[in-house]
Write a structure and sequence with these properties.
Radius of gyration of chain A: 24 Å
Number of helices of chain A: 8
Number of helices of chain B: 9
Strand content of chain A: 15-25%
Protein name (chain B): SKP1-like protein
Radius of gyration of chain B: 20 Å
Keywords (chain B): Ubl conjugation pathway
Largest sheet of chain B: 3 strands, mixed
Largest sheet of chain A: 9 strands, parallel
Strand content of chain B: 5-15%
Helix content of chain B: 55-70%
Subunit structure (chain B): Part of a SCF (SKP1-cullin-F-box) protein ligase complex.
Number of strands of chain A: 11
Strand order of the largest sheet of chain A: 1-2-4-6-7-8-9-10-11
Helix content of chain A: 10-25%
Number of strands of chain B: 3
Pfam family, one (chain B): Skp1_POZ
Pathway (chain B): Protein modification; protein ubiquitination
Shape of chain B: elongated
Oligomer: heterodimer
Strand order of the largest sheet of chain B: 2-1-3
Distance between the termini of chain B: 38 Å
Order of helices and strands of chain B: HEEHHEHHHHHH
């Protein structure tokens, strides 16, 4: 049956494929009006259709789709422990019950434009990559172990993570912190850090280098990574040279600290500064300062 | 051809199709197309449409005339007209949607895309290939692999018809 179909298509092959006749915006418009499952089916039509549906400018994950996703997550523990959503705006219906079995969630290039509560009671790993409107996001995940936020020009409201008593691994790169108007940026991150007793690994953007002089690093932290950025090389180095900067975390505030790893800012020769820095006296005798001298990639 | 007196009262436009047929329509009818509107605003009254063939242009002019006279009372009549308008073959729909896209008539474009979407919904990949005249260049193994990777999308029954 299938072979017969193939042959008859080949006979009609002299008529040009509609994807090359219809403008791409018309194809997009047609596929956008299909339920997402139907649009996804077009990937098997031919090689040129392989990724058309996945590149649609607008895709609505409708009720039907979400219901199925949730149903599956309830019935099939393997299938939905890991979820990655990218390049869309995320507005779950008010009836959305969250992801009861989800362990790992990666949200990339998502726009949140209204208050959004995601209940994920088993969520252990959360990656937020280049998401806009993170201040609207409220992720209820009491057993979260790893949180990584990466974005250049966004803000993250950290309040929903204040109760993550199991958080071991925190990364904040290129992100600024939304503050309570009564507090400065520093106090918001400070508040978060002091409320994370299990924290062991801290990856901070060099915007946050100043925190290394504050006595806020939780006592179990054994590794701090500071990521260099182009934007504030000057401020970053000035801060590093400030007396006392790397004397902290001190033995009293961070007894477990073994290593502070500083990545070379991109486009900046760190060699001299790094050498000097590594010889600066530090209060924490165990803590080793490592400067990454690889040319930034 | 419209009479001279009428031409004086109402501004007229001439549309020329890809196969060189000319059609005179009222400006108020034509400007529902953004493409025509822009040309009219630049002072043109003769509009060559090298991407629109006569067969599609006749239907589109019908559509524009009907929709230019839209009032509250003829709502039902227009709905019936629209229903008949899209009740045609896939090839005609593709021809019309290309023309509507070129002419930037968004309401027509949406209606045609919705019709095509509704009619290819639930169709088997083989049926959709025939409708779009797509040559499948996957090997059966490649196709099976892609189907497997997107298994969720291929659940349920397919419609094999081509209408």
């Amino acid at each position: 049956m299938m072979n017969q179909d193939r042959e008859s298509v080949a006979v009609e092959g002299d008529i040009e494929d509609r994807i090359s006749v219809l403008p791409r915006n018309v194809i997009d418009c047609i596929l956008e009006l299909l339920p997402v499952k139907e649009a996804a089916k077009t990937c098997t039509l031919s090689k040129s259709w392989r990724y058309v549906w996945s590149e649609l400018p607008k895709m609505v994950l409708d009720y039907e789709f979400c219901d199925e996703l949730i149903e599956e997550s309830e019935s099939n523990s393997e299938g939905s422990r890991w979820l990655e959503i990218a390049s869309c705006s995320f507005k779950p219906p008010s009836s959305f019950l969250g992801f009861p079995n989800l362990v790992t969630l990666r949200l990339a290039s998502i726009t949140f434009s209204e208050s959004c509560v995601i209940k994920a009671p088993l969520l252990a790993n959360l990656i937020l990559n280049c998401c806009d409107g993170m201040q609207y996001l409220n992720i209820v995940s009491p057993v979260l172990k790893s949180l990584n936020v990466c974005y250049r020009h966004s803000y993250i409201a950290l309040n929903c993570f204040m109760n993550c008593k199991n958080l071991r691994d925190l990364g904040l790169v290129f992100a600024e912190v939304v503050d309570n108007p009564n507090h400065n940026r520093r106090s918001t991150l400070e508040n978060l850090l002091v409320s994370l007793p299990a924290l062991e690994i801290l990856l901070l953007d060099s915007l946050f280098i100043e925190f290394l002089i504050a006595e806020v690093v939780p006592s179990n932290v054994y590794l701090i990574l500071v990521k260099g950025t182009n934007d504030n090389v000057e401020a970053f180095l000035k801060c590093l040279k400030t007396p006392g900067c790397l004397q902290l975390p001190s033995t009293s505030s961070a007894p477990s600290l073994l290593r502070i790893f500083i990545e070379q800012p991109i486009g900046f020769d760190f060699r001299n500064a790094g050498h000097k820095l590594s010889r600066l006296p530090r209060a924490s005798p165990k803590a080793e300062l490592v400067c990454d001298l690889r040319v930034g990639s | 051809m419209a009479s001279t007196t009428e031409t004086k009262q109402k501004k007229m436009l001439i549309l020329k199709s890809a196969d060189n047929d000319e059609f005179e329509i009222e400006e108020s009818v034509g400007v529902q197309s953004e493409t025509i509107k822009n040309l009219v605003e630049d002072g043109f009254t003769f509009v060559p449409l090298p991407n629109v063939y006569t067969k599609a242009l006749i239907k589109i002019i019908d559509y524009l005339k009907k929709h230019a006279n839209k009032t509250d009372s003829n709502d039902e009549e227009i709905k019936t007209f629209d229903k008949d308008f899209v009740n045609t073959t896939f090839d005609d729909l593709f021809e019309l949607v290309s023309a509507a896209n070129y002419l930037h008539i968004s309401c027509l474009m949406n209606m045609l895309c919705q019709t095509i979407a509704d009619r290819i919904k639930d169709k088997s990949p083989e049926a959709v290939r025939k409708i779009f005249h797509i040559n499948c260049d996957y090997t059966p193994e490649e196709e099976a692999k892609i189907r497997k990777a997107n298994a969720q999308a291929f659940e349920g029954q397919f419609d094999e018809s081509l209408d």
